[in-house]
Amino acid sequence: MKCQFCGQELPDKAKFCFNCKKQIVCQQCGEKLIDGAEICIYCGTEINPTIITNSQNHIKYIETQTEKSFEASFSNETAGAVVETFASFLPYNRKRSNIIEFTNNSNEANFSEVENVTPKLLSSNSNGESTTNNETYSIDKIFKKRGENEIYLHETSLKANSKRDYAGRLTILYLYYNQIHGIEEVKRTEVNSFLEKTGLKNDGNYRKWLSEEKSLYNINNGSYCLCRAGEERAKSYLADIFDNEKTDGWKLGNSTKDNSKNSGTNKTSKNPTSYSFITELNLKPEGKDSLKNFVSKYKASSGAEYNLVFVYYLQNILGEKNIGPNHIYTCYKDLNFKFPSNIRQSLIDTKSKKGWIDTSNMNDIKVSTVGENAIIDLTK
Asked: How far apart, in whole angstroms, are the C-alpha atoms of residue 294 and residue 350?
């Protein structure tokens, strides 16, 4: 349909025109309005002549390739609800994400696709300056509130590899949720209570995880506070959760028993302790850095750091596909470095403790977004 006042093309069910900012149909009976009339001539309902003032907001959505377009105007009172509702039906993909940016006073809200970014919701403060609520849209999908204070786990699929990994992820995400909502320090007793309500106990396995991950948080007077590294880890966990290609290695409610012990054959196939040298893997390619030269550029010293450098080299320098434990073993052997007795477990630990690599498919190991940032820190 076209606006009877300015001729702007509009959807068939439009009630207002975003171009001339006029109400085009009666809100009560749905009949078209007449220019200059102060009431609907069909039902007598009083007409509000315009829908937008200087304090109104505008939102615009454009999608490439298929060339989709969406525009809408709304008041400050409804701004948050409009953006959150619109965001809820946009597809989330870790590699190509629709980013929602909202500002008021008729500045356009832009929805764009960027690489490896968690969706952000921007709002404006009283001075008209945009402020970022970080990953509130994502983290608020993981936790919900009952009443005023009780927080509960809403999304139980945390894409963890083990019960210990699950408890660790839940701890960091819980602290991050509180931080996003203005609570910088959370009492240790509160964290333990939350874990127990979720079905996890503060056992020795969990306490060991806490001692190994001290770089992620500070403890002050019996309260936890996330460090910058903890914030980055939380973001990597969120990326895992919203990645539909990732699967859960351990789910809430699973038995803690190691199923691989049920069968000697299965244990061998899942956790091999012997590896094969890939003879056709050329680690001294012509026109590219050799593995030896590439590794010399980085300050790698631990198994996790070497795992990251090796996977990065294979993936980004050699362009290898379907990288597996044998590839990493071949890298260690090529450099004549001492390698872990269980390379597979070493790779899993690199994923669970650092988040640098993606081991959800052991025959297709890849560097994660966090790993791409971490390798820069290893540069001499």
From this structure: 20
Type and span of the H or E element at 189: helix 188-198
Helices 204-212 + 163-180 axis angle, to 10: 60
Q: What is the gyration radius of the CA atoms in the chain, in angstroms?
A: 27
Taking each helix axis from N to C terminus, what angle separates 163-180 and 188-198, rounded to the nearest 10 degrees?
A: 130
Closest CA to 355 of 339, 343, 366: 366
The C-alpha atoms of residue 275 and residue 306 are separated, in whole angstroms, by 17
Residue ranges making up the domain that contains 1: 1-51
Residues 6 or more apart whose CB falls under 8 angstroms from that of 303 comprise 340, 346, 349, 350
Overall domain count for the chain: 4
Average pLDDT per 10 consecutive residues for the chain, totaling 380 residues? 87 86 86 84 76 52 57 58 56 43 44 40 40 57 84 88 90 92 91 88 82 89 91 89 83 58 40 74 92 91 92 94 92 89 90 92 92 85
* Angstrom distance (rounded) from CA 234 to CA 173: 6
The three-state secondary structure class of 100 is: strand
Check whether residue 124 and residue 27 sit in a common domain.
no
Q: Which of the 8 DSSP states describes residue 345?
A: H
Backbone φ, ψ for residue 297 (5° rounding): -85, -5
Residue 261 is assigned to a structural domain of this protein: no
The answer on 181 and 111 residing in a single domain is no
pLDDT at 113: 42
The 3-state DSSP class for residue 146 equals strand
Query: Which amino acid makes up residue 95?
Result: K
3-state secondary structure of 151: strand
Note whether residue 256 is domain-resident: no
238 neighbors 135 (Cβ within 8 angstroms):
yes
**Boundary of a domain, candidates 71, 104, 133:** 133
Q: CB-based burial of residue 319 (10 Å sphere; 0-12 exposed, 13-18 middle, 19+ buried)?
A: exposed
In angstroms, the Cα distances linking 199 to 102, 114, 193, 195 are 39, 37, 10, 6
Asked if 111 contacts 92 with a C-beta cutoff of 8 angstroms, the reply is: no
Residue 289, domain CATH? 1.10.10
